[in-house]
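In practice, a research group might receive sequence data for several interacting partners and want a quick structural hypothesis before committing to experiments. The following worked case mirrors that situation: the sequences arrive first, and a predicted assembly follows.
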Amino acid sequence: MARKAGSNGIRTAAAIRRASLKLIHRHGFAAMSLRDLAAEVGVQPASLYNHIATKQALLFDLVRDHMEGLLTSTEAALAATPPEPLARIEAFMAHHLLYHFERKQEVYIANSELRALEGPNRARVLALRRRYERSLVSLLEAGERAGVVSTSDVKVAAFAILAALTGVCVWYKPSGRLTKEELVAIHTTLLMNGIRRRG
Amino acid sequence: MARKAGSNGIRTAAAIRRASLKLIHRHGFAAMSLRDLAAEVGVQPASLYNHIATKQALLFDLVRDHMEGLLTSTEAALAATPPEPLARIEAFMAHHLLYHFERKQEVYIANSELRALEGPNRARVLALRRRYERSLVSLLEAGERAGVVSTSDVKVAAFAILAALTGVCVWYKPSGRLTKEELVAIHTTLLMNGIRRRG
Amino acid sequence: MARKAGSNGIRTAAAIRRASLKLIHRHGFAAMSLRDLAAEVGVQPASLYNHIATKQALLFDLVRDHMEGLLTSTEAALAATPPEPLARIEAFMAHHLLYHFERKQEVYIANSELRALEGPNRARVLALRRRYERSLVSLLEAGERAGVVSTSDVKVAAFAILAALTGVCVWYKPSGRLTKEELVAIHTTLLMNGIRRRG
Amino acid sequence: MARKAGSNGIRTAAAIRRASLKLIHRHGFAAMSLRDLAAEVGVQPASLYNHIATKQALLFDLVRDHMEGLLTSTEAALAATPPEPLARIEAFMAHHLLYHFERKQEVYIANSELRALEGPNRARVLALRRRYERSLVSLLEAGERAGVVSTSDVKVAAFAILAALTGVCVWYKPSGRLTKEELVAIHTTLLMNGIRRRG
DNA sequence: CATGAATGAGACTTCATTCAT
DNA sequence: AATGAATGAAGTCTCATTCAT
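A structural hypothesis for the assembly, expressed as tokens:
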């Protein structure tokens, strides 16, 4: 029989998720012990296993959920943008930054703990990541076809853009000198200048 | 099990360095056990301690040596460049890429294993890294003063540039589609376009 | 997850008994986890405790029930046999084999998991077992008194006979080369020859 | 460089062997924890791993070594016996008992912990065991051919004999009522009578 | 009667490190 | 310089069991 709504089970599962994001982000996956995680959650190590199958499965779930959320959200953002290529590229950049500013831990983990994912898990996440990269490549290609974008190599440009955009998430702090919107403006300006075709 | 021959000491020390770069790059510092390292070197775990003080000290040495080499080499490269601001910025970018292409493992480790460095070690490395970042910031400021560079924020621009430049090292492969020189051209073009003041 | 139907209680209890015989026989008592048992029964581990008090109590019940059944059945078989000593000994042997052929798992468990029984439980089972051994010893002694049996030592002979008879249950398979009746014939012949007084 | 003769390494390895025989015999393999074993040896649990690869490997080594010793020793005993079939069978029986009286723990373990051996390990041990069984079967067959032995089925007879002989080891105690030699006499008499062809 | 969740104890095993040889 | 052996701490995970629902 199902437990009451808001039962401890659901609360604990959410707490595990939150605590593991925090600890993996801080120390890395390999360096986070399940003892530490349990302590952070306020539970015995054995109790974690009522909610996760394995340490590895926990990591996979975190990373996959993040990637799927990113893809879904990006598609929604682009769907709400006019079809003009430069506008769409800029929308992609802005969305990437704003989405990631709210999910610093997840971004970092999704990028740096890929190597901690075992075989099939890694493959599945890499597939999602490639889908995301390709969506930016497509936007750049559309820009090139429309004659408003000029890069020496769309794929390399896409990677460079993603690296620059993702880099900022590592050091962004809500309490920092610049607001999110300012950071968006600075980066889109810099990068749009970098790829815009010049008369 | 007699010893091989001659002064194996130096050879072993070098092998440890090489093997640890490889293994840390592949699995991460926390996930690399000294057993694995010893096996890769072809020696018993206990023997590592004739060459390293501690696992932590090994990591610190690797990262510090890399950072110091980078700083020295960058200064030399700039010293050999004419004082024109744009030329110096481009030289910095080109040097960053070419130096790092040859040291993929080191870059990655220096960036992703900072959190594995304990207290004072981390501080020392962070200081070196800040010195490097500041040298790019200075170049950008000189460009602004000379009226040839325009960024919304030099510091943010510098971080974005470094992130974009460093990102390529993660995926660069000598056997890839593009040569090192082509990658340098693509990135300097993209990023110089991003910061050059426009008439 | 609604319940199946009707009074599942009894059915579950029987299923636990069946499944635990199977698993203890296959893996041993210590190596059978209640998780495995629950899975075999098709129930959650916690549900087992509606039917058993304790893992230890489960084992004790299985073993005691088996021993008591064996004693009861043996007494019934002897009661139905003429008082002639050799006939009674042979009847004992045949009954031992036929009873055990139908209860391979129980025999094995009753013999090999004695050490898993704790203190008082072990004592109680050992008492039952000794009663059984003594009943064969008595038959042999009656034979000696009647001058139709000759062993160097009745107790040792009884143990050797029981060991030989029980041994066959370990490897007996219904689908094997020989029928139960053939195996009974072979063993009674062999062992009766072993103890019969010779002119 | 090798350690001194009689170094602690060798002594510890032997102590582990001795202690594990004792504990497995007493509690069973699954029920023996490596903590207990280490405590019995007088060493930390981690130190066991300087001498064993795995708990499973330890069991396998114990059982295999026992079986190989049994085979070697049996062959030697038969080689020293005249070719007369009955004499050889009796020599086999006597050797089985005397060899096993000195190795109560090993016999028990080799018989009852077969199921604790995983896949290939079990197969290897079963092969050794079958070789031993076959050697008795061969002796019986030779006896049948020479007209001095009569069993309904040599294979079944061999199993019954081995079961009877092995059974005694379970309860034999040096301090018991009967000497080893008496037990040998009792059993060989009983069993030789069981199989000898009668005029 | 069944279950999801929790737990304390403990399972096997690996960790970085030390030290006598 | 190298190593076999030892160690205390800690790793992930499973154990039997309990209890509110």
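Before designing any experiment, note the following. The longest helix of chain C spans residues 119-145. Residues 42 and 122 of chain C are 30 Å apart (CA to CA).
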